[in-house]
Amino acid sequence: MTFDDFRRVLLSFADRATDLDLSKGELALEIRGEIIEAQVRQRPAGLFVVEEGEQLPAGRWLLDRVAQLEILARRILDYTEPAEHFVEPSGKHLRDINDDPAEEEQPVPDLRETVLRSLSAHPAGVTSLHFLTSDAGEGKSTLLNEMARDQAKRYLSRDDDWVFLPVHLGGRLFMRFDDVVVGTLMNKLRFNGLRYASFLELVRLGAVVPALDGFEELFIESAGGDATTALGDFTQELDSAGTAVIAARRAYFQYRSLKAQAKLIDSLRGQAISASRFTIDRWDRDHFLRYASLRGEPNGESVYQQLEEILGPSHPLLTRAVLVQKLLDLATDSEDFQQLLTRLRDEPKGYFREFIGSIIEREARKWVDRTGIQDVSTPLLSLEQHYDLLSSIAVEMWTSGSDRLPRDVMVFVAELYAEDAGSTPEVTRQIVDKISTHALIVPSGHSKYCFDHEEFFHFFLGEAVGRSSVSKDVAGIRDLAGRAALPAMAVEAAAKYIRREGVPPSELADFMSAAYAGEQRTSLIRENLSAVAIECLDGVEQPTEFKDGVFPAASLAGKRLKEVTFNKCYFGSTDLRCAELVSCRFISCEFVQLGGDGTERVQDTQLSQCKIHAWVGSSGSEFAPDRIVQALMRAGFTVEGKLDTVGQVVAPNEAAEPDEEIKLMETLLRMFSRATALNESAVRRKMGTRESLFFNEVYPRLLQAEIVVEVPHRGSGVQRRMKLGVSATRCRSSFEASAGSFESFLSRMNSRD
């Protein structure tokens, strides 16, 4: 640690710059009301601090004396509950692209230890981002907490010199990122030793490795194809140093949209970034039985076999940890479990609501009137009222911008609901007393409560959205839809509620159009209601016309649409994977990007007067209108003429094959989404048999145009290292306009327009 670094870190802890005096080898610092006095000495081995006769390396003294990381490690152990019946997860590891340009995932049998070892590397001169990905309910948060406890023990035993800090982001939709970090330290861990500036300095030093859990809330690809993220701001603050874990459904570099990737690359410009990914495997039979054994469940194998016969081995009820936990809770009562099996046989596709319904039925039997005024078996609430009450709690969380509520707010919501339901004061008091112990509600921090898992929260939020849609409550639906992008589970739950109530698709389309009338195309209300509407149309065979919708990314993937007309609609980046479009019409619609992989079925479906910016297929991307039309026709669409650069229909023409050079440039640009600087060896391996063409023909011209610039190589050996010298967004727009010609691409990049 240099003297300048030492001074900078100390200043981040001081209340005011004048609270630090560091001159002539003497140190005086006032922090948290305490005055620290010491001497600073320069030794051949580095900087040392002498306080009360004890000499320590400056870095260790900072961590123990000023940052008090020993206290933080103890608080992590005190306030992070160990997982009950923890099953060690397996997974896969996609290494940094400079280490493995082939981008082949390697199996990892012991994910917890492998991630911690990777984090301990702390490469210098680069911000190292490690993504931890899985679907909801597959154990990301549990794994992070277990890693935090393990690393805290290692820090306290001096086996390691850094602390792992999970920061839960999910649900905090309107808070600043620094507020979330400081809130975690002070409210959850009762640790007031770090301001955000101090936290950043410790991350840069490698003394704290944060794990940002629930990053989907801060990283969203909108219908317009834009990717908005706090990640760019965070990495800019780290200034090419430090290590962080990002826990999310998928890593940012997995976005197929070149437009979204370009914006993300630009947000990371100016910094040295490398990215790798760990993926948690879904549970299999062995994981299920291991968990059942740890719980002491004697019938685990029987439970698994019965559900496997109905649902198959890959069903979420058998592969997602949070659902397995609730499932085995139900299995302790054979009658409840048999009722669940019956429900699943009758409605396998609606398994989530049926599963939650079994939990609620079990809970409802416990909610009986104990006042003695009525019969002892009189329920406090009906089953539907249980759904309504939990939906009211979910709505309060959504409108307050958090996935947890203080106890007094939870009580207020329950009391208000009971009174609106016409309950007597005696019954209302019992409902208020029981709500915090509901089977789907758990304590979370100091006097706060949340749903047992975020998907339960999102499910009941979706029920509320569906209820407002069915009742045609325009004000209510606009309020819910205007807060933030609705989670996928909420959209799915809302659509199933609407369909269960038998609302005709045409009637729903008219209501949604009226509800978002007058909203801008970028409006959350328009996008959320369109997302619910297209989910409602999935599998329905009734002629329907939908106008002026704005559909989010991936809105057509997996959908089965028949006789649906989309008029003047806008679609975000979406592929057609496993989609079925039969007798559909797209009139004057705009697509940020369409894509297919051969699994789609497109029959008697027409694109008329549409604008499509790009096509992404299994063989690569197409930006030239002629090439896009050819790809669409191969996929099964009917297109009258071809699309020119502004999307108008003109006479058909033979499309030119894109240059090999432009394909190589696209490959290079996508590589820059994994690391802001690339080693020559990595690029050569990625280009494969085309490496000679790239380095002999393409690379020199990119250097000449300063599209790519060379930077010093800091590793072993002698090789070139390159980074983008221009905006990735500018590269992407030149791609779209180049019609597959590398010469045209260079001309546009050299143009000042």
Topology diagram in text:
Blueprint: H1 3-13, E1 20-23, E2 26-31, E3 34-43, E4 46-51, E5 54-57, H2 58-66, H3 69-79, E6 91-94, E7 106-108, H4 111-119, E8 127-133, H5 140-156, E9 163-168, H6 177-188, H7 196-205, E10 208-213, E11 219-221, E12 227-229, H8 231-238, E13 243-248, H9 258-267, E14 273-280, H10 285-295, H11 300-311, H12 316-319, H13 321-331, H14 334-346, H15 351-366, H16 383-400, E15 404-406, H17 407-420, H18 425-435, E16 441-443, E17 448-451, H19 454-470, H20 474-481, H21 488-500, H22 505-515, H23 524-537, E18 544-547, E19 550-551, E20 560-562, E21 564-567, E22 570-571, E23 574-575, E24 580-582, E25 585-587, E26 590-591, E27 594-596, E28 601-603, E29 605-608, E30 611-612, E31 615-617, E32 620-622, H24 625-635, E33 637-639, E34 642-643, E35 649-650, H25 660-671, E36 678-679, H26 680-687, H27 691-704, E37 708-711, E38 721-724, H28 728-737, H29 742-750
Parallel strand pairs: 8-13, 8-14, 9-10, 10-13, 18-21, 19-22, 20-24, 21-25, 22-26, 23-27, 24-28, 25-29, 26-30, 27-31, 29-33
Antiparallel strand pairs: 1-2, 2-3, 3-4, 4-5, 6-7, 6-14, 11-12, 15-17, 16-17, 31-32, 34-35, 36-38, 37-38
Helix pairs in contact: 1-2, 1-7, 3-5, 9-28, 14-15, 16-17, 16-19, 17-18, 19-21, 20-23, 21-23, 22-23, 26-27, 28-29
